[in-house]
Each structure stands twice: as C-alpha cells, then as structure tokens.
User: What shape does this take?
Amino acid sequence: MRNFEIYNPTYFVFGRDTQGRTGELVKRFGGSKVLIHYGGGSVVRSGLLRQVEESLDAAGIAHVSLGGVQPNPRSGLVYEGIDICKREGIDFLLGIGGGSAIDSAKAIAAGAVFDGDFWDIWMGEAPYANALPLGCVLTLPATGTEGSNSSVITNEKLHLKRGSSSDFNRPRFAILNPELTYTLPAWHTACGVADIMAHIIERYFTNTPDVDVSDRLCESVLQTVIKYAPVCLHEPDNYEARAAVMWAGTLAHNGQLGVGRQEDWSSHQMGHELSALYDSTHGATLSVLIPHWLRYCLPGHEMREAQFAVRVFDCEMDFEHPERTALEGIERLSAFWKSLGLPLTFAELGAKEEDIPLMAKKCKRNYGTHTGAFRPLLEEDVAAIYHMCCEK
Amino acid sequence: MRNFEIYNPTYFVFGRDTQGRTGELVKRFGGSKVLIHYGGGSVVRSGLLRQVEESLDAAGIAHVSLGGVQPNPRSGLVYEGIDICKREGIDFLLGIGGGSAIDSAKAIAAGAVFDGDFWDIWMGEAPYANALPLGCVLTLPATGTEGSNSSVITNEKLHLKRGSSSDFNRPRFAILNPELTYTLPAWHTACGVADIMAHIIERYFTNTPDVDVSDRLCESVLQTVIKYAPVCLHEPDNYEARAAVMWAGTLAHNGQLGVGRQEDWSSHQMGHELSALYDSTHGATLSVLIPHWLRYCLPGHEMREAQFAVRVFDCEMDFEHPERTALEGIERLSAFWKSLGLPLTFAELGAKEEDIPLMAKKCKRNYGTHTGAFRPLLEEDVAAIYHMCCEK
Assistant: This one.
C-alpha cells in the first residue's frame, strides 16, 4: 500500500424529500445570496427548481438563476455565470442536475473570486487559490462530481476539454434524493451505470501490491451496482434500486476506493477522444473500450483479472488456467453492459476505423507517451485497442 | 434504506514517516499555538513526541505539552488541559496516542472555548456550540476516534462514563502511520481488532431492509481485518498487515458503514458495565459478549446471521437449516477471537456471576428499558446474555 491522503469534507444529505433542506444547508455553510445553476427543462418541468427556490425563500436566502448547461459543459456559460456572480454579489453557488451542471457551477465558483481568466486555472496555468462555497442537488448518478474534487469543462472556442482537480472543487454539501432519478431515460441511467463502474475499474486494475482493503471495497460497490442497475431499468421508480445506484455513484468516485494504489484512467482518456470526435456519451465510450482494454492488458495480469472475475462476477476459478477465468469475467462484464442497452463496438457508437490513427495520436498528445498505468500504453497500443473495438 | 446524513471532514494523511507532516498540517488548519496531549511513556520513549515537536518547531508553531492520559480518560486531566489552554492562549489541540489521548484532547478542545463546565456538555445538559480545532497522530487502531464525532470521558468523582457525539469532535486532520503500531503489545493489538470488528458488527446486524451497499462494505472491512489481524500478531512489524488493520479501524467507525440503517450498540452498552465494574479492556468485553449476543438474537434473525456466516466467514449455506449456518458463523467468530488471545467467557475476564443483576439493572438505567435495536433487550434479556457468558 502506498502512502496516501484523503479528504472528503462534503456534507451528504441522502434520501426522500431532501431537496427541501437546500435553504437550511446553504445557510449552514454561510451562503446568503445564491446563484442557482442548472441545465435544461427537466429540472424546471419536474418542479425541482421551484422546490429549491421555495426552500431558499423559506430560509431567507436571496437567489438568481442561470440555466442552460449542456452536456460537456461549455466555458461560454461559465463566463456568463462569473459575470452574474460579480455583478450581483453572489456568495454561494448551487448546482442542480447531473455532472454537467455541477461541474459548470464549480468553474463559476472558482472564476467568481479570481481576477484573471478561470480557464487558465483549468489549463493548470494559474494557481487555484480560492472559490466561492458550493452545494449541489444531484439528479443523475454517474460522474461522482457531488463528492469529488474535479470539474471538466469544454472550451468551445479553443476546442479543448480540460479537468481541474482541487479541494476547492469539493461541494460543501450534496443533496441526493433517489426519487429525483425516477424519470431518467433508460439510456442515461445505463450510461451513468457504466461511468460509475468505470470509476471503480480504473482504480481496481493496478500493479500496486497489498491493497486488499480497497480491493474489497471496490468489489462491494461493483456488486451492488450489478445487482441494482437492471432493476432501475425495469422498474424506474424502485426506490431501493435507485438509492443503491445513487450512493454507489458517490462512493465510486470520492477517492476512497483508490487509496494507496496507482490508478489507471487510460479507458477514460481513450474514451474522451471518442467523445471529442463523435460527441459520444461518456458512459457509452467506456462500455465499448473497457472490455477490449482488459483483454489487451491480460498477458502478465492474469491473476488480478481473474480476481475481478471471481469476486465481482462469481466466475469459478480455473487454477490451472487463470487466464480463462479472467476472460470469462470480461465476457460477463460485456454481457452485463449489453443487457443494459449499452454499446460494445465502434459500429454501435458510430465511430469510424479510419479515425483511429488521429485519435491515437491525440491521446498521446494529451496524455503523454504512455496512457494509463496498469499496462502503460504507447500510441500503437492505443490504436490496437481501438482496432479491437471494430471487430465483430 | 433510511434517509441519512454523513459528514467526514477529516483530512487523513496515511503512511510511512507521516508524523513529520504534523507542523504543516497544524498550520494548514489554522493553528499557531498547540497543546500536545498524550498518555504514558511510550510516546516519549519511541521518540514520537520529539518528532512531532520538531515538526511543529520547523513550521514555526509554538507548543506546550500535557501528558498522563490514562485508559478510560478522566475528567480531572481534561480540566487541567482546559486551564492550560485558557492560560496559554492555545488555539489548536493535538492528540497523540490511542483513543484515550484523542478523546481527552477532544474534551479539552470543547472546554477551552466554553464558559461553563465541559462535563455539562458531555452529560447532554449544555449545548455543544464550539471547540478549538484539533488534529491527531494515531498510535493504536481501535476506537476509530481519529475519524469519528465521538469522545468518551470518565468523571472519576461522579463515577460516570459519558460520551459526546458532535461534529465539533471531528479532527481536522489525522496522521496514521502504521509503523507507529509495530511496538504495540499483542494484547492491545488484539483488543483493538475486537473493537474494530465490533464497530462493524454493531452496524451490520439490523432489521432495516435494503441496505445492500453498506452490508457489502461492512463485510469487506471485516474480511480485511480477519485476514491481517493474525499477521499483526505473528509479525508485529509487517507493514502491510499493520496498514490494513489501521485503515480498517478508521473505516469501521467513521459512519459510512452504518448509513441508511438502524444500528444496534447493545454489546457496547453491556460491555461498558463490565468495564465499569472490573476495569476490563473494552475490546475484551466485546469478544466475550458478541458471540453470546448473536446466539441470543438468532430466533427470527436466521437469514441475516447466515448472511454474515456465509459472506464474512465463508461458511457453506445450509438452505434447509439456515440457523445451522448462522451458528457455524458464530463459532468461527469465537474461534477467530480465541486465536488472537481474546477471552470468550466471564471467567477469563474475571467477571462474577453474582454481579449480573446489578449490571443488568445499570444497563437499563443507563440506556432505557430497551438496550439495542436488532433485538431490543429488556433487563432480563441482558441478564440472560450475561449468564450465557458464564457457561463453560
């Protein structure tokens, strides 16, 4: 186990009807004038925005709103939010929605107290030294941003997508009401599940020895998701299934499943190139890539992949041929994702074989000579994995 | 799953040589003049106190020291610490040691900024509205106080032992270096392990349905402890084993394993009466009580106890007689604790059968008509469990 540091200061309020606690929580964490930041119409149509506003009103907290966040949130709206904060004297950000709305709110919180251009912080070219406090009301379990230190923003003018990781990005509070996820379309539910599982998988496959504690925690959260994700699709208003997946999404990405170990993240990186070129949904790029990545990494990693197969997918261990057990686990992972309606191939994703050289090159440019750590991938390895995604 | 709230704001720094970070962390969390609070000679003899002082010196942080904390920390020393804080203008508490030193530091931190008597807060008779910030350097994995909101103090004049639970008790940072536990005697290591496992067991056995996520997390941490505790005893300086148990101790009691469920805590409560009467080590009271408590609770709880047996102790499920599986799990738990040198009976603990009526009565007086929740225990149930501990 490596030395590690972990910090999770977010106050989580989880359960039915918890959005009515928003005003009280903003007050507790020092807010008096809030910018409510959200995406499209569903937050309005469902009545959630109104409930949150009523809760703020009841707590005597002033508020202004800025909607319109898109998937892969854009810097343009972030700048607009920063202007509002400075003009209106906003002292607290409130993100309502999924990862996009909350990530966008995090960037606004940073820019609102920064004299320069927030994008320089996201590019790693200016220090991240302060931010307005921020809370969130989550409606889509997937990115884990409600408990994480990260925020990913796309600069639509520069065609760049960049993430910032800083404790200033950690929400002061997060409200998680599983009931708010009942109306999620099946596709978004499934893509969220793939993202949650990927956050665990990117941590689980490591060469760091003696990480038994976090191995078992990873397996636990994966087993929970595997048990309940199909229930979410077949009974969209099953509270217990929605609750299990929602809390699993937070646990998957608040950092504790990766303590003391080298993490990988190559599948996320390869997936970002697919999203950049085809605007593919993040979770869908992961369901295509991860099984092929696991097959590509198998030589030399038979025992760890067999452990995954046995402990997560209940495969029987083949002690004579552990690689067969590992492959059986990958098959079960693919079959599980397919059962949720997720794609497994470039064809299903609408990605094209001829773009592979370009994507592999961009991957190298963005992440350095080696992508990932479990098996450090050169440009040709990345290309080979993309090619595997074109088969059958 | 029930609605829940969870808050874990402690910044954890885990690993080798991390005590050298103390000064930097005190500074980060706003301390400029520290009261270092510790127990007996081992912190001095091992050189840890000197290392911490050097780290504070290097960071330019003033400090005074107060040693002498005893197991079951006393209010007398707390009052002494409060006087020092007020007299010296202390603005940060630093607890070094196991649960006793850190719990005592928490009480001093509360009393230092309270006009009245800190004991009134611990008795629940005065509001807990503020405390000095506090950090800790842990040397004994057991109570989980390094990441918890609780502190238990004994008032030696009033013969009362009382716990306070408040977010003000949460350390700002906790330094966990497994190397610092190499020199722990086998008995303290084993009692710490029993306490860690008990913190999980008290949460695991619940009647709240649909708590799969936290069930599996509980099982994971228990499995880790069961794997590594014997290694800690046989190879006291095995870093990986000490690291696994140390981190498990924090995870067991920072609240996340109990989210969304009714917890029990009757074994802790029955154990406190044993400690009060015979000054028994806390962990040793738990290894005696828990197996008998599980046997007493079995009727009506066969399936949950069988789940524990199958998932934690790898028992084979007897689908026709799940109670046999449950009993097999209890046997394995007892055998495991016995293998660590822990007691299983009143005789080994030095407890007397004739004191049972008194202890059962005190349990009722201290915790109300019903002790616990998994099977709410009346005074006669508590007595019956104590009697079971006298058998064989």
Summary: The CA atoms of residues 83 and 112 of chain A lie 8 Å apart. The two ends of chain A are 40 Å apart (CA to CA). The interface with chain B takes residues 1-16, 18, 209-210, 212-213, 216-217, 219-221, 223-224, 227-228, 240, 243-244, 247-248, 251, 259-260 of chain A (CB under 8 Å). Strands of chain A lie at 4-14, 33-38, 62-66, 92-97, 134-138, 150-155, 160-165, 173-176.
